[in-house]
Structure prediction request, 519 residues.
Amino acid sequence: MVASRATLPDLDALDPNELKALIVSQHELIVSRDDELERLKLLIAKLQRMRFGRSSEKLDRQIEQLELQLEALQQNDAEKVAALPEPLASVERRARPARRPLPAHLPREVRTYPPKQEACPDCGGELKHLGEDVSEMLEIESIRFKVIRQVRPKMACAGCDRIVQAEAPSRPIARGVAGPGLLAHVLASKFADHLPLYRQSEIYARQGVELDRSTLADWVCGTSQLFEPLVEALRRHVMAAQKLHADDTPVPVLAPGNGKTKTGRLWTYVRDDRPAGDQTPPAVWFAYSPDRKGEHPQTHLSKFHGTLQADAYAGFEQIYETGRIQEAACWAHVRRKFYDLEMAHKSLVAVEALRRIGELYAVESDISGRSPEERREVRNTRSRPLLESLKQWLDETLVKLSKKSDTAIAVRYALGRWDALLRYCDDGHLEIDNNAAERSLRAVALGRKNYLFAGSDRGGKSAAAIYSLIGTAKLNGIDPESYLRNVLSHIAEHPINRIDELLPWNFATESTEDSSRAA
Prediction:
């Protein structure tokens, strides 16, 4: 460990060789600490990538523990550096990565500190401006509520007694007291930052503003109803794609009457063709259903024509039978089954399968962002031979396994979907897996962990609407809270036949300008 101030020798009494030895020993400790920091960061990054491809509460807990371990190590490191005397502290600070410049878009408050002396302290001469040193400090202001008092003077005509008065400004929620900024903050805090309404209520109370949870819940419901035409426009944009990613996740819902919960579902449909070089804005549309019956995705996809990238959920089978929608299976699901085997049994078959699947992903890494034509050509040149070899190996391996073994089940899962797993090679628009849909569900999983359940089926539908807008804003690189604030400022009076103008990619420029003016 780095020596504390109390145990350090008298640096002035050390000869040059002893001082050098001390600095070298401290440097070795610093390097060791940096190595540990990097190891933790790489491990966390690796686990996070794995989480995109698997649904595992154990893995989530492991990541959380590593994040806490990294945070504790970094805090401990800062305390040790603060206790070091100079020059060791200066050496340590210089060894750290360069500090990033503070964001240019943030507002600047200039504070000038003139010297206390009005004349030269040596000779009393007049002081002239020579230059200045400028440094910056990042600061944050706590939540600041304000009340906007809307005053509408009444004017009377002196000749005919006609009374003239401006119309009352529209509000996002009729007769509601919440402004667009507050509503956006409540929505973003709950659905983007996973902060339950009761915790928000406690935070606001510390600011001297009492907002009951039931009031906040009414606001969430009211805004989701206000968003319905916008979410419908978003759904049309998503369903107009030639290829979709689809998935679903359970959502506990409070059952009326008995206080218990039932299991509803949130379905996600993602349009994102950026990996194939397409500049069409990406989007995600969520839909809620009270159960997982196949009739729900059939209804959601009733107007869709193209390829569906999804898992092996049986409810999709009837959709594929019509021929209107083609199935593209997910290699991440195949890989996950072998990964679980490797973790549980150290299976040599699983190790070899993972190696071969990894080769397929290496090809995808090289062609991400290229045109569909290029992707198709490279896949047929490089991936198809790998796939043919993999199938032959799987066929040969299966006959050597017990029919009831977990390994045989994993092999049959891949072989049973082989045509659908190969489809991505024939179409450069498709992806090798369905991770785009699984990534979109991450916010739902985190929210479910924090606020446990939806209050009703109506609450599930409200959540689906708001997750759709927030998720789409994120896909387009737009701050969700700023976007929602600007939409809520305009949507009440916006013409319904021009609702597409409020979609995130159309509204981004105006949102940015409004945010700059507010700053």
